[in-house]
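Box 3.1. Reading complex inputs
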Amino acid sequence: MVSVGSHKNINLMAYSEVTKVEGYVGNFTVTVRKKARYVKEADCTGCGICQEKCPKKVIDQAYEAGVGYRKAIYTPFPQAVPKYPVIDRDNCTFFQKGTCKACEKFCASNAIDFKQQDEYVTFQVGNIILATGYDLFDARRISQYGYGRLANVFTNLEFERLSSAGGPTGGKIVLRDGVTVPQSVGIVHCVGSRDKHYNNYCSVICCMQSLKFAHLVKEKTGATVYNFYMDMRTAFKDYDEFYQRVLDEGTLFVRGRVAEVTDAARQSGEEGKLIVQVEDTLIGKQRRIPVDMVILSAGLEPRHDSKQVGHLFGISCASAGWFIERHPKLDPVATMTEGIFIAGCAQGPKDIPASVAQGAAAAARVVGKVQQKEIAVEPIRASIDKERCSACRICNNQCPFTAINFIEAKNGARAYSEVNPALCQGCGTCVAACPSGAIAGTVFSSKQITAQLNGLMLLNIGEAVPA
Amino acid sequence: MAQQFEPLIIGFTCNWCSYRAADSAGSMRLKYPPNIRLIRLMCSGRIDTTFVLQAFANGADAVLISGCHPGDCHYVEQNYKAQSRFLLMRRMIAQMGIEPQRLQLLWASAAEGTIFAAEVTKMIEEIRKLGPLNWKGGQLSAVSHQRSAIAEVAV
Amino acid sequence: MSKPKFAMYWAAACGGCEIAVLNTNEKILDVDANFDVVFWPVAMDAKYKDVEAMADQSILLTLFNGAIRNDENEHIAHLLRKKSQILVAFGACATQGGIPGLANLSSTPSMVDTAFTTLSTDNPDDLRPQTKYTIPEGEITIPTLYPAVKSLDQVVKVDYYMPGCPPESHQIAAVIDLVVQVLQGKAQLPPTGAVIGAGNSSVCEECTRTRNEKKIAKFTRIQDFKPDPDVCLLEQGILCCGAATRSGCGAVCPKAAVPCVGCYGATDDSPDHGARLLNAVASVIDSRDPVEVEKILDGIPDPAGMFYRFGMPGSLLRASKAAWEDKG
């Protein structure tokens, strides 16, 4: 990331949002809102003194997953690029109460600017890669697993922070009280995934992640570890070997979907514990397994705003919300909109190697396009006969790719609509909608389709099919 | 024994979903009756009322329009336009005395070969019960020839 | 040298086409100056037998208006075809069936019932037209109604089509001018089968209202609200057929705040006017929810009547099942 941040050809805009995309491949005009961070980027040296001196501690819901703190002026994590901090307006004492300004006082380079405003930047790009990632499934939605209600039920991200050497516990795996080392840990797979009540799809990463958790718990605490899984999915290189290693380390695997995690003890030995109620499908029995800590491997979900983002860039989302690739097997990186590529979990759940591969593929596709200097478009396109177009504007809102432009009447020339062939994807919706028959579609023309229709019924066979 | 009525159905399929669903039904070796003839469009949004009426006028007993599930359109939202046209077409053909069952809309994704085959089979049976449409002005001799060809395959 | 011969005939029609010809004002004198009018029942006295007596192809130009509603209409269509060099389907009824073609939505008995028994009809003895009647001089007949109305080209070959209900007088005048010029060797006739006296774009081209992107959330009618005088009627939810209807009329209706009813029919390469209109109207409905779309569609209570007001017999389906299956 540091080399990205300092590359002369890369303009990194963190803490920014795309608000408008116009144009087409090779000619996109993108408007970006750079949100006010109240720190002048030109002056900030990234020394970090402001974060040290800021008196306001805030629970960090993002990077620390709610198990650690940050300040009201902060960088999301120590290695973040760019290094400039941002003031969290909602929690900053100055913005809320009008006093404090500790950061301003201590900043040696006068980089704090409480009056900073959002800034809109417009620029031209030729291609766009969307790598907007995913949202974590909110484990609170499965109330019977007790997350948010039972203290020692953790999510996967919380556990990641616990086991990280840079995390709030310095890498010590402890219960919510911050001191007790668990003697037994249950790891629940497929939380919110492969479940018709939540998401039907497999979140892909959870099996390997849960195996890693089991390994870490074993290594760091020696606790008894149970993995509650439905199917063990360890495709890809070295993954199954890792599973064998975790098995060899003595982690216990129970095959079955966990019904409930509860603190209501019913049998001796359950007092003060979390009891995992599960059907062990391999032995065909209901089991109650008392543990000290439960880790929920919550699945991946599309970004909550993926539909809006898709609309902004003119690409489609599947009903779940993952962006749709041009072809699931043959073109998993491109989208139906020429010049817009997708990578990573925005396209669908995937692990890090797959995300990196897709990101590299998307970058390579863009480089390929840039070097060609011209683009080849599919032959399936709509075009409007200017003479026959009556400028009724029925077609104007038919195109989700904004390929249809309306040309106003001027200098005595009458108004008409036209199709930008670089943007048209050839769906043919406007061809069917055009009431005056002025729009023609190549390859799927009305004449061709009617000829098929007649041919299928052995009518007018032998008549030449006009182009 | 009277020969069973073999309906002739024209299906308009979307290149990205139902056409592939039909393809996948084939590669799964699923069988559905040979009474439906498919025409590929790039998108269900290409469906033109002219095609549907032409099919009826040619002598088809029913028409199927199929596309991607709502929200899954390969072209973002064009299947909704197909849906609106379908709903209005169905009202219009009802006035012409064509039973609404003779024009159906089916959402089927590329993976739903099984659903496609099952729904098509169901539709064919429904039309079989309804009987022939035999639209006047249609070239009925060609159509009856087609029907007997279907009957031969269907045995 | 004798002048070329001219004929005009009305079949199932209201007579508006004849009035439109007269509306060309002094242009009608050109007709008289250049042609010898041999048959024009509305304007002069002539009998069918006079026409039958003419030599084949002796009439240069016949303007045939009206649809083919009964056997008499068809008989005269065949007769005039035989006697004419150029047969023009004149007006919406001859080109596509026109308003009489709306009867193709019902069976003939139900249509006759409607005509002779509904509330607005004073017919206490329930009298019905008799196709045959015997009088002392012998049996007299009236023409037999066909189960479905046909357009002219469904019974005879037509050379040119001149759409409109009625065709606009300035277009008629232009066509008369053209024919006169052809006679003088100054111009050439268009290829056979062409549409004459009209454009090949849609009415919107000639409409002066402002048009924007269209998204319709509700269909309504002009009597239900006061439409904006400057904005596209369709955008305001009024079902205006202009977008799908051939240009040439000068958009007189929408300019006068009355929605286009589609009398000029479809543009070239559109085999079905109503289908084109349906596609366009459905495509701009602003909803993705089928239930809501149905609610919006309730605003179009009679889609077939609306989309095929002038073009039912000339459409792909031609007539409803009720009309086809009519035995009476």
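In summary: DSSP finds five helices and four strands in chain B.
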